[in-house]
Each structure stands twice: as C-alpha cells, then as structure tokens.
Design a protein that fits this description.
- The complex is a heterodimer of chains A (108) and B (120).
- Chain A is an all-beta fold and 108 residues long.
- Chain A has strands at residues 4-7, 10-13, 19-25, 33-38, 45-49, 53-54, 62-67, 70-75, 85-90, 103-107.
- Chain A contains no helices and ten strands.
- The model of chain A has no long low-confidence stretch (mean pLDDT 96).
- By secondary structure, chain B is mainly β.
- Classes of the chains: A mainly beta (108), B mainly beta (120).
- At the A-B interface, strand 4, strand 5 and strand 9 of A face strand 5 and strand 10 of B.
Chain lengths: 108, 120
C-alpha cells in the first residue's frame, strides 16, 4: 500500500504569511493527489484536485504543485479563515487510498 | 444541491455490530463511486471503504477488511456500511463521501458524519 508522509504536523504563522505544506508518497502516484481543509467540528472541504487543480470557489491564494512522489500546498498570504487542518490524499491505482497525517495551521 | 445524510451511529459494545446508512440526494447516485472515511477523536482522516457506482467493485482498508461490508441500494439512493466485530479502535466519526468523476477521483462532497463509539 502507498503511504503518505505529510509535513510539518503543525505550524504557527501570522496573517499575511506564506505557508507551505508538503506531502511525500512512498512511490510515484503521478498527479493523483488531492488536498482538503478541515475546520473543527466540520467535514473536510476539497481545495485542490489532481495536484494542482483549484476547485471552484476556493480562493486563488491556495495553490498546489508536484507530481510523482513530492507535492506541495501553498497558501500565498494566510488569512484568518485559513487556520485549519490540511490533509493530502492519494488516489493512485486501486484502493486503499491513504490520507496524510494532517497539518494543523495555527495562529502565531 | 448535493446532500449526504448519515445515520445509524451510536454506542456499541466491543464485539458488537452496527449498520450505518447514507441517504444521498441532488445527483444521479448510481453514476458515482462512494466512500466511507472515518476520523477518530482528535486524530486524522482514514479512508475505510469504497464502492463503484454500479456496486460491482468494492475496496477496504486493511484495518477493517473482513469485519466491515460496504453496500449500496441505487433504487433508494443509499449507501451502507455494515460493521461487525467492532473494536475500541473503530471509535470515530464516520463520513459518507461522494467521489467526483474526475482525474484523481477527489471527494467533492462529504456528509456531516455520524459518531460510532465502541465501549463497554
């Protein structure tokens, strides 16, 4: 099974900061990588699919890149509503499909 | 508007069984693969099981294979998860999730979740 290693597990940042979260797959997954945002008490929300495709309605400050084994989620200018936990999720080949461990973005 | 409404969660003793249901609306149910994803208290997301739109392909996480069974009734627009031989480590919020028909099959809609607590 493909394992996903997400880092960091948490980070503290200020409003306006540029934030980068990485996700590494244990083997190549092409671009079969999605990113989700989850706020406390809520279901996850899809931000980016296929490594870099921004979902409709998601602010352009969110961006995704990468292919193969290394992927990045970038928030170009952190806003108050962005404080949440972010997960990567690989869907390459047949399931089981693993999530990363999550990155909690907190206010500095 | 897509809506996924889970039900069936609750408190169950170790070794017991529970069946979760997910009533779907707002899309052509039989055209989409569906999944169950769970989240233990204070922990991350764990993909549990998935089923194709026609119900002819099923997949399970190693942690539940042989104990959980996913099924769907396309005439009722409902997804199910039969959970047997439950363990304390199965305690979690269980989300019903719709997979998009797109590259990387992202989960584009999630239910609100139903809490399953396995405890004596």
């Amino acid at each position: 099974d493909i394992q996903m290693t997400q880092s960091p597990s948490s980070l503290s940042a200020s409003v306006g900061d540029r934030v980068t979260i990485t996700c590494r797959a244990s083997q190549s997954i092409s671009n079969y990588l999605n990113w989700y945002q989850q706020k406390p008490g809520e279901a996850p929300k899809l931000l980016i699919s296929a490594a870099s495709s921004l979902q409709s309605g998601v602010p352009s400050r969110f961006g995704g890149s990468g292919s193969g084994t290394d992927f990045t989620l970038t928030i170009s200018s952190l806003q108050p509503e962005d404080f949440a936990t972010y997960y990567c999720h690989q869907t390459y080949s047949t399931p089981p499909w693993a999530f990363g461990q999550g990155t909690k973005v907190e206010i500095k | 508007e897509v809506n996924l409404l889970e039900s069936g969660g609750g408190l169950v003793q170790p070794g017991g069984s529970l069946r979760l249901s997910c009533a779907a609306s707002g899309f052509t149910f039989n055209k989409y693969a569906m999944s169950w994803v769970r989240q233990a208290p204070g922990k991350g997301l764990e993909w549990v099981s998935g089923m194709s739109g026609r119900g002819d392909n099923t997949h399970y996480a190693d942690s539940v294979r042989g104990r959980f069974t996913i099924s769907r009734d396309n005439s009722k627009n409902t997804l199910y998860l039969q959970m047997n031989s439950l363990r304390a480590e199965d305690t979690a919020v269980y989300y019903c999730a719709k997979e998009a028909r797109a590259v990387a099959a992202p989960i584009d809609y999630w239910g609100q979740g139903t809490l399953v607590t396995v405890s004596s």
